[in-house]
Every structure is written in C-alpha cells, then in structure tokens.
Design goal:
The complex is a heterodimer of chains A (221) and B (216). With 221 residues, chain A is mainly alpha-helical. Chain A is 77% helix and 0% strand. Chain A has one domain: MetI-like fold. Chain A has nine helices and no strands. Chain B has one domain: MetI-like (MetI-like fold). Classes of the chains: A mainly alpha (221), B mainly alpha (216).
C-alpha cells in the first residue's frame, strides 16, 4: 500500500506524446465533425425526402449506438472493403463520424433558433445571400449553440480515450503501456485521469475566454 | 474457424441481461446518490455545495474509461485485494450516474421558480415538506426528458465494461467476432441490439420534451 510516482517520471516523453496525440485526435474529430454537422443541418431541410431520411438515419444510428462499437466497426470492417486504415486514422474517422451526428443536431437547433424575421431583415438591408448566411444566420446561431457545442467537444476529448481500444497511440494507450512496464496501476491511472482533468479544465477556460471575445455584440436578452 | 450462426446472435441477446444488470445497478445506487448530489448543490451550505461541485467537476473531467481502469486495476492493486469485475465496474458506473443525474436534477430543481418555495414557506411547510411536495414533483417533470436522455448515454457507456473483460453485449460481440472472423456481422448485430434498446428511449425523451414545452 505504498504510493510511488517516481517510476512514472521516466516515461515523461511517452506521456507528452500521448497528450499531443489525444489533442490531435480531438482537434481532427472536432473540425471534421463540425463540418459534417453544419452540412447535415443545412441538408436536413432539403426538398428531397431521400436526403432528409439519409441525414435522419445517420444521426439516429450514430447517437443510439456506442462509440466503442463504431470504432471497432471502422477499424475491423473497413479492411474487408479493401480500405485498411491504421489505428489512429481509423479512430479519427470514427470519432469524426460520431461528433458529426451530435453536431448535426446541435447545428440544426441553432439554425432553427434564428427567427424568420431576422433573415428577412438582413435581406431588406440589401445583403447578399452569402452575407445573410454568414452574419445574420450562422454567427448568431453559433452564439446560441456555443454552450452545447463546447461541451460536446469536451465529451469528444474524453471519448478519444476509446481509441486506445484499437491500439491507437494516444494518452490512454500510453497509460496502458506504462502500466505494463511499471505495474503501478493505481499511480498510472490516477496520473492519467489528472492529466485529462487538467486538459478539460484548460479547454473550458479557453472556451469561456473565446466566447467573450467572439460574441461581444449585445443582444436583447 | 466457423461461420456466424443464429446461436452467436442468441449469445448476444443473452448478454443483454448483463448490460441491463449494469444499468440497473448504476441507477439503483447512482440514483439516490445523484439525488443527494442535487440536494447538496442546491443547499445553502457552502461546504456541502463545494464538495458536490468538486465531485461533479472531477467525474465530468475524467474519461469514464479512466474511472473504470482506476477502480478495476488501480484500487485493488493499491489495496492489495482481489475485486470481482462486476463490483469494480459497478462502482465506476454508480459514480458516473450519480454525478450526471445529480447535475440534471439540480437543473430541474433550480428551474422551479423561487416563488414556489416562497409560497410553500408562507404556507408554513418545512423545508423538507416544501421540497417533497412542491419542488420535487415539478422538478421531476422538468428533468424527466434529460434523465431519459442520460439513460441512453448510460446504456451505451456500459459497453466500456467490455474493456476490463466483463461479458456484456459489447464483449459478446467481440467474442463472436474473434470466434467467427466475421466482424461485420458481429458488430452490426451488436449495434442493432443497442439501437433497438436506445432508439425507443430517445424517441420517448423527445416526446416528453415536446409535451413539456406545450405545457410551459
């Protein structure tokens, strides 16, 4: 029953590498997922029922099945279709698809939160279609969904630990590696959890700061 | 090597009971603890409030996989004891459910207008009576959609128990995949079963939310 964190110092570089890969994975999934989300949200009012059905099925299937199984499916099944992705890439694709499904819902509620009259007001001011979309729809919508979007990004950061299950190199993979070398299970997982905790707290602070800078314009509320 | 047969699918269906067991344990133990968390977070005592806030921040800032590993490998090694997988896994899911349910229910309690508790106080109800008969029933209705939504998350997250070798639905899928070399069929079946359980709950949560918005 003794604690010994000293042995872990030797693996400092491995931990740093793990942190870097976890953040990379989170960044990829966030950017790709948000692009999918925006596209999906814009297409979910499409005139073609087939398009709407496709988006709906995508969102519901991904949201109602575990991310772990999705990662397994991408990693183990795609090779049968002739596409053999390395673990990290497979995890990045799976997490992007996962983030995408949640983003579609978030962006859809954001777009729905913009009143019709506001869009008409933009058009009356003589803004082009793109200007209306950018300044009158997208930015105010982003402000409305900012809290749910950022907490989803934090969930993706935590969820990226699942990538270790297909042996993608990230922080949790490092944890398993160091544990197998040192047998200090308690210390290793305590330290790794603490690192995730610090990453989440830092991310929250960054998001809060970014919100103040990005959405300074006043609202009626 | 053998092909994927109906009996593999039956094994998966059989494994659902262990997924259900985990969910029931997490709700049965995490529910009351979550209620405690919610009451601490809404109490006027800054110490109780602070303790609950710290617990919540830690649970929400750490991967569930990390908690599972910590309770399955870390703590038993540290204490030098052997703990069955079911116990370690249940502890992790209970902590997880308590923190998230606590936060959902805190939101529900705080969404009930303060006028309500003032009115209850004017009627001479004690703080407990006011909570039990005035605040809680309304908070319950407000928080129900999010609670059902969390239930879906919980069901999906029990798949992480497979990582420590606990045989539930996801692990049954892995075993079938390894035995039959048919990962597509195996994981597709597992996904289909999860979907069949979670999708109706998601729809229920959505309809509850709609009903709530009409009333309010």
């Amino acid at each position: 029953m003794t604690l010994n964190f000293n042995q872990l110092w030797r693996y400092q570089d491995d931990f740093l590498h793990g942190i870097q890969m976890t953040l990379t994975l989170t960044l990829i999934a966030t950017v790709a997922g948000m692009l999918i989300g925006l596209l999906g949200a814009l297409l979910s009012n499409n005139r073609l029922p087939a398009v709407r059905l496709l988006i709906r099925s995508y969102v519901e299937v991904i949201r109602n099945t575990p991310a772990l199984i999705q990662i397994f499916l991408i990693f183990f099944v795609l090779p049968y279709a002739g596409l053999r992705l390395p673990p990290f890439e497979a995890a990045a694709v799976a997490l992007s698809i996962y983030m995408g499904a949640y983003s579609v819902e978030i962006f859809r509620s954001g777009l729905a939160s913009i009143p019709r009259s506001q869009i008409e007001a933009g058009q009356c001011l003589g803004l082009t279609r793109f200007q209306v979309f950018r300044h009158v729809i997208l930015l105010p919508a982003l402000r409305n969904i900012y809290p749910s979007l950022t907490s989803q990004i934090i969930l993706i950061l935590l969820g990226s630990s699942l990538a270790s299950q297909v042996s993608a190199e990230e922080l949790f993979h490092t944890a398993a590696f160091v544990e197998s070398r040192t047998y200090r299970s308690f210390e290793v997982y305590a330290v790794v959890c603490a690192i995730y905790f610090v990453m989440v707290l830092s991310l929250r602070l960054i998001f809060a700061g970014a919100e103040r800078i990005a959405f300074r314009w006043p609202t009626r509320r | 090597m053998r092909g994927f047969t109906l009996s593999d699918f039956e094994t998966m269906l059989w494994a659902v009971q262990w997924t259900a067991t985990l969910v029931i344990i997490a709700l049965a133990l995490g529910g009351p603890l979550g209620l405690l968390m919610a009451m601490m977070r809404t109490s006027r005592n800054p110490v109780l409030n602070g303790i609950a806030l710290v617990i919540l921040q830690i649970v929400q800032g750490v991967p569930l996989l990390g908690m599972l590993m910590f309770f399955y490998f870390g703590v038993p090694v540290f204490l030098g004891i052997k703990v069955p997988a079911l116990i370690s896994v249940s502890i992790a899911f209970t902590v997880f459910a308590a923190a998230f349910l606590g936060e959902i229910w805190r939101g529900g309690i705080q969404a009930v207008h303060t006028n309500q508790s003032e009115a209850a106080a004017c009627l001479g109800l004690t703080r407990w009576q006011s909570f039990r008969h005035v605040i809680a029933p309304q908070a319950f209705r407000i928080a129900l959609p999010a609670t059902v939504g969390f239930l879906v998350q919980l069901i999906k997250n029990t798949s992480l128990a497979s990582v420590v070798g606990f045989v539930e639905l996801a692990r049954a899928g892995q075993l079938a995949s390894a035995a039959t070399f048919a990962p597509l069929t195996s994981y597709a079946c597992v996904s289909a079963i999860y979907f069949a359980i979670c999708f109706p709950l998601t729809q229920w949560s959505r309809s509850l939310e709609k009903k709530l918005h009409v009333v309010r």
